Amino acid sequence: RELEQLVREERTLVRRERLASEREGEGHNVFYRAYLTLCAVFRPLKLIFGLLLLVISLVVFASMLITCIDKLKNSVCGRHCGYLLGHTQIFNPINWLFTFTSRVFPIDYILFLLLTLLFFTSSVVGIASIGIRFLWVTLFKIRSGKTSPNALLMATVMLTLMTLALNYALAMIVAPQYATFGPQTFCDRPSGRPDAQPDCSNHHKAVRPCSERSDNPLANLVCTPSVASTFLNRITVNFPFLGVVDFWAQFAFLGIFVLVFVVMLFRVPKMDEQQMDEDLREEEEEGLLASTGRRFGATWQDITGKAKGVKRSDYGTVSGEGAGAGAGESAGCRAG
C-alpha cells in the first residue's frame, strides 16, 4: 500500500511539473511565449484595473443603498404600490454622474453600457467561480472544456433570470431618475397666456429636472418617461406583491455583497489541488485513450492491408495511363 501511494504521489508530482512547464511556455511556439511575457509586463496595470473596478463596485453599492433607503423613507404609497419613488430626495452619485454626462452625447450611453456589462460579467464570473449550488451544496462545477450539459443548461437559465433582475435593478435602484426621465428638464414658471410656454432664459434657477411628483401641470406635457420605467412602474402598481419582493430582494443582494466582500477581504486564496489533480488525470487518460485508438487503427490497417490516404495500384490490371503508354509502345513497334 505504501508503495502504491508513493507511486500515485510520484505521478501527481510529474503531472504538476508538466503543468508548470506548460504554463511557463515550454513546448509552445514563440507567439505564446511572447503572450506570457506581455502578461507578466502588464500585471501591474491589471492590479490597478482591479482596484478601479473595486472602487466602482463600492460606488454602485452606495448608490443602490441610498436609493433603497430613499424609497423606504419617501415612497408615495409604501408597500401598497411596491415602494414607488416619485422623486429622488437623497443624493445618488451614479444618478448624478449619468445626468451630468448626458450633456455631451453619447458619453452617458457609453457609461450606462459599461455599467450593464459590469453587472453581467460579474454574474458570469460568479457562476464560473463558485459553480451552481443550492445553498452550500455544490450541484455542478463550471470548468473550461469539461462542463456537463446539465450544468450548461442550468447556467443559461440562471443567467436569463439574472438579466431579468438586472433590468429592475438598473432602472429602479441604481439610477432611477436617469432611467426614468434622463436629462429632461422643464421651466417651473407661470406663463403669461394659457397657450404660451414659460420663458426661463433669464431665470436659470427655475429650470427643474423632470419628476413624477411635480406640482406644475406643464411638467406632464413636457416630460416623457422612458418605456422601460413605465413598464416596470405599471407592473409594480398593478401587482404590488411583485414590487415588494423585488424591493426587499435588493436589500438581500446588498447584504450578501457585504458578507462576501468582508470574507474575501481577509481570506487567503487557495488552490484546489484535488480538482487540479483530477483534471490532469482526466487529460492523461484522454491522451492514453486517443493513443490506444490510434494503435488499434494501425493494427486493423495492418490486418486488412488497407491504409487510409494511400493509393494502391491494381496489380495485374492496366490503368488509364498504363494503357496509353502500352498503346504508344505497340504503335512504335509497328512503325519500326
Automatic annotation (TrEMBL):
Compositionally biased spans, kind Gly residues: 319-336
Residues passing through the membrane, by range: 47-69, 110-139, 151-175, 247-266
GO cellular component, as recorded: vacuolar membrane
Coiled coil: none
InterPro entries: LMBD1_LysCbl_Transport
The UniProt record lists the keyword Transmembrane helix: yes
GO biological process, one term: protein localization to vacuole
Keywords associated with the record: Membrane, Transmembrane, Transmembrane helix
Segments for region (Disordered): 311-336
Origin superkingdom: Eukaryota
Record-linked PANTHER family: LYSOSOMAL COBALAMIN TRANSPORT ESCORT PROTEIN LMBD1, LYSOSOMAL COBALAMIN TRANSPORTER-RELATED
Name the UniProt record assigns to this protein: Lysosomal cobalamin transporter
Origin species: Hortaea werneckii (Black yeast)
